[in-house]
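User: Is it possible to get a 3D structure for a protein together with its bound compound? The compound here is flavin mononucleotide. I've pasted both below.
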Amino acid sequence: MTLSQKTGLRETKRRLDRRVLYFSIKGNTLENKPVENCADLVNQDFCFTQEERDALYKTIFNRRDVRGQFKPDAIPDEVLARVLQAAHHAPSVGFMQPWNFIVIRSKETKLRVHQGFVEANEEAAKLFKAERQETYRNLKLEGIKESPINICITCDRNRCGPHVLGRTHIKTTDLYSSVCAVQNLWLAARAEGLGVGWVSIIKQQALKDALNIPDDIVPIAYLCVGYVSHFNKKPDLENAGWRKRLPLEDLVFFDQWNEQRNAEEDSLIKQIELDADFSEQFMQYDENALE
Ligand SMILES: Cc1cc2nc3c(=O)[nH]c(=O)nc-3n(C[C@H](O)[C@H](O)[C@H](O)COP(=O)(O)O)c2cc1C
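Assistant: Yes, that's possible. Here is the predicted structure of the complex:
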């Protein structure tokens, strides 16, 4: 049986299971009482209201990697400052805050970075075979020149000297910290109505040369930022048939690597399957948005 046949069968079974589960859970008021808010469970002083919580989920589920829909409109400094504040409040190992934010407005610099993308993209394209390569070449994978602002987030690995609290045994945690700043920025930008597109198809040295980044500083993310004509509902790569979102239940293990359970065996998996469409209620529909 092929993978897609298997996925199809599993999807049918999941839908049937969900119907059965819905009725059995409806009858069970105690264990499965809906948790609207953390105040239902614990001290409510620090709980967000449902509206506030929903705003966060709305931001998360409506965030997209944007490449092709940038508008030239300027981003007001007050908006950009808020977004950068959000990035700066990311978690970091040992409170190291290893990031810097290079805000790129210069057309010339963007052109240099874009040239770096073109060269790396050509190399990357050749790695895919036949039809896949054709699909790859038709993908829009950056918006460097069209977006009004590009931001490069970096990591200074020496910011706190050789011994950083929490980094002794996993040296790369400083890099992870800068990635947390990227995600904070991405979400805050979405909440501000700004699109962000991450461009990693560029050689590190080419990027460093274009931005005059010293040897000991690591470029973590090159981001294209700007207002957009619309946000697509699904990732561009999904719309292009490149890859689909994997079923969450296949990615959750219990106690040991690769220890999976099905909905009959575990109530968490049951709940994950029940909530498979959780993101849907938060999606902002837009006429231009691709499915
Ligand atoms: C580390 C990283 C590097 C990425 N590099 C690129 C890139 O070079 N070009 C591109 O078009 N998208 C890039 N993306 C965006 C992913 O393709 C995108 O996140 C994924 O397809 C899911 O889509 P979504 O972000 O809209 O949910 C990158 C994302 C991450 C996290």
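The mean pLDDT is 90. The chain is about 40% helix and 10% strand.
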